[in-house]
Design goal:
Layout: E1 2-11, E2 21-27, E3 61-63, H1 66-76, E4 84-88, H2 98-106, E5 110-115, E6 128-131, E7 143-151, E8 165-173, H3 189-200, E9 205-206, H4 210-213
Parallel strand pairs: 2-4, 4-5, 5-6, 6-7, 7-8, 8-9
Antiparallel strand pairs: 1-2, 1-3
Helix pairs in contact: 1-2
The structure holds S-adenosylmethionine (SAM), ligand 2KA, iron/sulfur cluster (SF4) and magnesium ion.
Length: about 220
């Protein structure tokens, strides 16, 4: 059984695949926050900008089998070519397993994952692994395609992740989790601090949540 908050077709807004058309498969639930505002202050991850509670989003629901869920994803992608699915959440690696990755690949999808790094990916691997470490949470993933750290985090500054092998290292300015899509301003202090860090540490590059800039899902 897979529990899905929402599924929608949009452009990847972040990281190396920015601008690429993808189905977003947002799983319900996370191991670093309940998703309830009353628990936010004491959560290991306290700045999350996403609602991942329940199954009430667009195309959300419970899916009994991997093929049923993969079929629902396939229906949202126009055509058979360049198929791309971004598995996110919540924490997608609480639910994504070899069976679902296979079912998606059988339907010609490249499978990307956005994870907090505290759970290893399925043994058969995925096609693109993005890790975004959070606060004091222990990172168990040792290599990934992109490391995309929200900046600044007192307990998770970039130096701590020097040992993680990644082709690409990004810093995303921490956005106000309560800001509406039309209120995101990238000329704030956090963004200035992130820019300065990248200038001083050129192994890191700036990542913007471009979907917020252009106001798409
Ligand atoms: C909502 S998370 C879901 C996937 C996974 N749980 C994770 O944390 O990577 C998707 C992406 O949004 C980023 N994110 C969450 N809250 C943010 C915020 N307030 N500002 C900037 N990025 C944020 C995360 O770091 C992650 O890269
Ligand atoms: N367009 C768009 N790009 C994204 N990249 C990562 C997202 C996420 O919430 O995981 C996200 C999202 O929610 N929307
Ligand atoms: S950003 Fe990721 S790890 Fe943090 S609460 Fe949100 S879904 Fe969980
Ligand atoms: Mg998002």
């Amino acid at each position: 059984m897979y529990t899905v908050k929402e599924m929608f077709y949009t452009l990847q807004g972040e990281g190396a695949h920015t601008g690429r058309a993808a189905v977003f498969l947002r799983f319900t639930g996370c191991n670093l926050w309940s998703g309830l505002e009353k628990h936010r202050a004491e959560a290991i991850c306290s700045f999350c900008d996403t609602d991942f509670v329940g199954t009430d989003g667009v195309n959300g629901g419970k899916f009994k089998t991997a093929s049923e869920l993969a079929e629902a994803v396939a229906k949202l992608f126009p055509g058979e070519k360049n198929r791309f699915v971004v598995c996110t959440g919540g924490e997608p690696l609480l639910q994504l397993d070899n069976e679902l990755v296979s079912a998606l690949r059988e339907r010609n999808f490249e499978v990307a994952v956005e994870s907090n790094g505290t759970i290893r990916p399925p043994s058969g691997g995925v096609d693109w692994l993005c890790i975004s470490p959070k606060g004091t949470a222990e990172v168990v993933v040792t290599h990934c395609d992109e490391l995309k750290l929200v900046f600044p985090q007192a307990d998770a500054m970039p130096d701590r992740f020097a040992g993680i092998k990644a082709q690409l290292r990004y810093l995303t300015p921490m956005a106000d989790p309560h800001a509406g899509m039309d209120e995101v301003i990238y000329r704030n202090t956090t963004t200035q601090q992130t820019i300065q860090y990248c200038l001083d540490h050129p192994q890191w590059q700036l990542n913007l949540q471009s979907h917020k800039v252009i106001n798409i899902a």
